[in-house]
From TrEMBL:
Heme binds at C785. PROSITE patterns: CYTOCHROME_P450 (PS00086), GLYCOSYL_HYDROL_F17 (PS00587). Its main location: membrane. This is glucan endo-1,3-beta-D-glucosidase. GO terms for cellular component: plasma membrane; side of membrane. Its cofactor is heme. Belongs to the cytochrome P450 family. Belongs to the glycosyl hydrolase 17 family. It is found in: Cell membrane. It comes from Capsicum baccatum (Peruvian pepper). It is a lipid-anchor; GPI-anchor. The lineage of its organism: Eukaryota, Viridiplantae, Streptophyta, Embryophyta, Tracheophyta. SUPFAM superfamilies: (Trans)glycosidases, Cytochrome P450.
Length: 845
């Protein structure tokens, strides 16, 4: 059933409201995908939280407009961003059967519009929505026999080859609408209906075709193969058969509609594929959900599977059977616990605690000083109280309901089940198929404190608050447009770095410290608007800010027993961890207070919208009474914590490891220097406009991220619902650690995996945006890193200039084999000992 979706057309005046349709599809059918023919906000919203995948269409009339990048950005802002990811939009179709319109202007704008929408999605920080466009079979010049299938001449090279190239690059499918209904004649009706027939023999391949659907798919496949694109996926955007038509209309009957659609569903789900594409399964969207009374022509009105009152015209095997009654006695083979549901609010959980403790049950253990007081959160206390109530009353499931805020589990909540993922195949299944289920973040002991009780993007539980704050962070700091606007700051700060190196020629230079100061200064200036004379790394009065940050990293990355055995949190009082945590929190808090205070002051004086930095924006949003998610000071501080914790050390660590690897690999260093000196020949420095030409440097950065990912276990996740991965049931609330290092050095995917070899990425389409699951330095899916656009240009510019201006060597007397490459414990994996190198001036002219 997984592969069968349904087209939800709305050319009718008698259809039920979208909310009812969404509930019907979710509860009564096995469809888990729908496709709509416009960006109808009511429909898209109605499918929020249903788990149903939604394909949205840009109508043909909007193609010319969205071919312009700014209009495409608007389109995405209006039609995707407000709904995604609560509605699981997974594909945008740009137009519908555009080639069939014959409108040359429209056709010429189709691919540019697809590209513009794709770019707009990336700019909005959305990496997992594909872009495609459905084609009618009219695009074919020949389709019989299937092996001779070819696209219409001229269109094949001018339109389809570049479009297929786009599909290949963006890993999106080619979408077609095969309708045997429009292709059969007197002699081929059985062949079209998947009924018994002699089949059609393709002499060129020796394959016998027993149904027209396969033949049409293989014809398209042959045409794609002829152009060299047989690796691109095919999705069946529409197919169907009407159940009624005009009197005497050939082939139209209820019986034929049943035969075609029932057999089609079985055929697709069987996974046998087609003669030329054996063992492949094609995502297939039936046409259509409802009969549509405003369509022209009787048969056109009767493609539906359901009437507007949801009664089936016929069942193609997609109606859910009614649930079997639960067994009289729940099996007691294992012990069960009652825990709060992941989506239960703190307010609801507090009222559960009040209810249980008010009912006479002993709640001393969760009072201050009691053995279960720690962790001191509403959720942890509710977990204790709700379970106590459930157990005392005999363990009946209804005693764990708590107005739908309780959940019976077989996992002992006092220890936390953890799944470590070390294979790209499992990561693929997680991020491709179960992304939402894996989108939770555990409220880790240290992170909870340092993120103001998970008030930031990185550690916020999956839900509305996370969505809102991630949107703010992306729009105001990390979108491609914003990042571009900071280019002069990057340029100035990298020049400052080059100058600092120049001041210490021929003596030991601490690259690690310089990289951290660079990253910190850029972040401070773009997020907090600090002037360059207030560079964070050079602050001498108070404790250096990066020292505080190192401690933060260690606290966040270190093993903490309370994260795995909550009942043993008391150990942290004894081993001093609580004290360290409190101290670090106070230091950070003081810093954030100062940042906010400075901004409140300066806001009172001036500030146009144009020169607002991120903190100004947050303060403005805080004052807006119409804001959906009200921001308090602690929320703002939580977001500042994000930027420092997730944004500073990651980029500087990458710079540090690139330089370390280059010094160990003189051949690669030399090649990179030759490239950069060639590209920026005659200039005084490398500029951002040169970066796109530095192909080898980009390979070096990829290879560094492969061997030294700044977050080797990504950031921990927690499942928010149970799901099946590779036949194993993963329960809700399981801690998930993705071992990116193991995956990125797995010999199954990487030859000679431990050798630093940038050339391995040459001519490969492996990108770090979370689509290649063997390469995940930034994670993947909806909780993947939104800071890629922000960090990569800075890393590239810094390395390019360091290589352009200077020759590099190890400290005198030190040999390459003596360089300490050990990693330090922390959330970000930096070098344990700072990287110190010697620079000498390179004669540019
Ligand atoms: C080389 C640089 C960077 C690397 C390697 C990196 C890596 C990562 C990784 C592995 C994750 C976890 C992803 C997952 O769970 O799938 C993450 C999350 C995150 N990163 Fe980055 N990051 C980098 C730079 C940045 C920058 C510059 C910022 C912002 C200024 C940033 C902000 C975030 C945020 C907010 C999250 C949490 C996302 C969420 O939970 O929704 N990162 N990063």
């Amino acid at each position: 059933d997984y592969f069968i979706g349904i087209n939800y057309g709305t050319v009718a005046n008698n259809l039920p409201p979208p909310s009812q349709v969404a509930g019907f599809i979710r509860d009564k059918t096995t469809f888990n995908k729908i496709k709509i023919f416009d960006p109808n906000g009511d429909i898209i919203r109605a499918f929020a939280d249903t788990g149903v995948w939604v394909t949205v269409t840009v109508p043909n009339g909007e193609i010319l407009s969205v071919a312009k990048p700014t209009s495409a950005q608007w389109w995405v802002e209006e039609n995707v961003v407000p709904f995604y990811p609560r509605t699981r939009i997974d594909r945008i179709c740009v137009g519908n059967e555009v080639m069939a319109t014959g409108d040359k202007n429209l056709i010429a704008h189709l691919l540019p519009a697809m590209k513009a929408i794709h770019e707009a999605l990336l700019a909005a920080g959305i990496h997992d929505i594909q872009v495609s466009t459905p084609h009618s079979m009219g695009i074919m010049a020949r389709s019989e026999p299937p092996s001779s299938g070819r696209f219409r001449p001229v269109y094949d090279r001018v339109i389809f080859a570049p479009m297929l190239q786009f599909h290949r690059e963006t890993k999106s499918p080619f979408m077609i609408c095969p309708y045997p209904f429009f292709g059969f004649n007197d002699g081929t009706l059985d062949y079209a209906l998947f009924k018994d027939n002699n089949g059609v023999y393709d002499e060129a391949t020796g394959k016998n075709y027993t149904n027209m659907f396969d033949a049409q798919l293989d014809a398209v496949y042959s045409a794609m193969k002829d152009l060299g694109y047989d690796d691109v996926d095919i999705v069946v955007a529409e197919t169907g058969w009407p159940s009624a038509g005009d009197p005497g209309q050939p082939g139209v009957s209820l019986e034929n509609a049943v035969s075609y659609n029932v057999n089609l569903v079985k055929h697709v789900n069987s996974g046998v594929g087609t003669p030329l594409m054996p063992n492949r399964t094609f995502e297939t969207y039936l046409f259509s959900l409802f009969n549509e009374d405003l369509k022209p022509g009787t048969s056109e009105q009767n493609f539906g599977l359901f009437r507007p009152d949801f009664s089936p015209i016929y069942d193609v095997g997609i109606l859910r059977k009614s649930q079997p009654p639960p067994p009289a006695m729940a099996p007691q083979a294992w012990k069960k616990w009652c825990v709060p549901r992941p989506d239960a609010s703190d307010a609801a959980l507090q009222s559960n605690i009040d209810f249980v403790c008010g009912s006479g049950l002993d709640c001393q253990p969760i009072k201050d000083g009691g053995p279960c007081y720690e962790p001191n959160t509403v959720r942890a206390h509710a977990s204790y109280a709700m379970n106590a109530f459930y157990q005392v009353n005999g363990g009946n499931d209804y005693d764990c309901n708590f107005i739908n805020t309780g959940l019976v589990t077989v996992n002992d909540p006092s220890s936390i089940p953890t799944l470590v993922v070390s294979s790209a195949d499992v990561a693929k299944e997680i991020f491709r198929t179960h992304d939402v289920a894996f989108a939770g973040r555990p409220a880790l002991y240290a992170a909870r404190k340092l993120s103001y009780n998970c008030c930031n993007v990185s550690f916020a539980p999956y839900g509305d608050y996370w969505r809102e704050v991630r949107k703010i962070l992306v729009l105001e700091l990390l979108s491609a447009k914003r990042v571009q606007s900071f280019s002069s700051i990057r340029d100035e700060e990298v020049s400052h770095l080059v100058q600092q190196v120049g001041n210490s020629l021929n003596s030991s230079i601490n690259i690690s410290a310089l990289a951290l100061a660079l990253s910190n200064n850029v972040v401070c200036r773009v997020a907090f608007g600090k002037g360059s004379n207030e560079r964070g790394g050079e602050n001498n009065g108070e404790k250096m800010f990066h020292e505080i940050l190192y401690e933060t990293q260690e606290l966040l990355g270190g093993f903490n027993i309370a994260d795995y055995f909550p009942n043993m949190a008391w150990i942290n009082k004894v081993n001093g961890l609580d004290k360290r945590l409190e101290k670090n929190f106070r230091e950070l808090d003081k810093y954030y207070d100062k940042v906010i205070e400075d901004h409140v002051d300066s806001r009172n004086r001036i500030k146009q919208r144009d020169d607002e930095d991120l903190v100004d924006v947050l303060l403005r949003i805080q004052k807006d009474p119409n804001q959906d998610v009200p921001l308090q000071d602690s929320h703002i501080k939580g977001l500042l914590a994000d930027i420092f914790i997730a944004g500073t050390d990651t980029s500087s660590t990458t710079i540090e490891w690139v330089m370390a690897e280059l010094i160990l690999n003189p051949r690669i260093m030399k090649k990179a220097q030759q490239e950069v000196r060639q590209v920026a020949k005659g200039k005084h420095k490398v500029q951002e406009t040169d970066l796109y030409k530095l192909e080898y440097l980009k390979l070096i950065i990829k290879e560094t991220l492969r061997l030294h990912p700044p977050a080797p276990l990504l950031v921990p996740r927690v499942t928010i619902s149970s799901c099946k991965i590779m036949d194993y049931e993963v329960p809700a609330n399981t801690r998930i650690l993705i071992n990116a290092t193991a995956i990125m050095t797995d010999p199954k995917y990487w030859e000679d995996p431990l050798t630093f070899l940038p050339e391995r990425f040459l001519n490969k389409e492996i990108d770090y945006r979370g689509q290649n699951f063997e390469f995940l330095p930034f994670g993947a899916g909806r909780r993947g890193c939104p800071g890629i656009n922000f960090s990569i240009p800075l890393v590239e510019l810094a390395i390019a200039n360091l290589l352009f201006h200077y020759e590099w060597s190890l400290l005198e007397g030190l040999k390459a084999k003596d360089l300490d490459m050990e990693e330090a414990l922390g959330l970000t994996m930096h070098k344990k000992t700072p990287l110190c190198l010697v620079a000498s001036y390179y004669e540019l002219y």
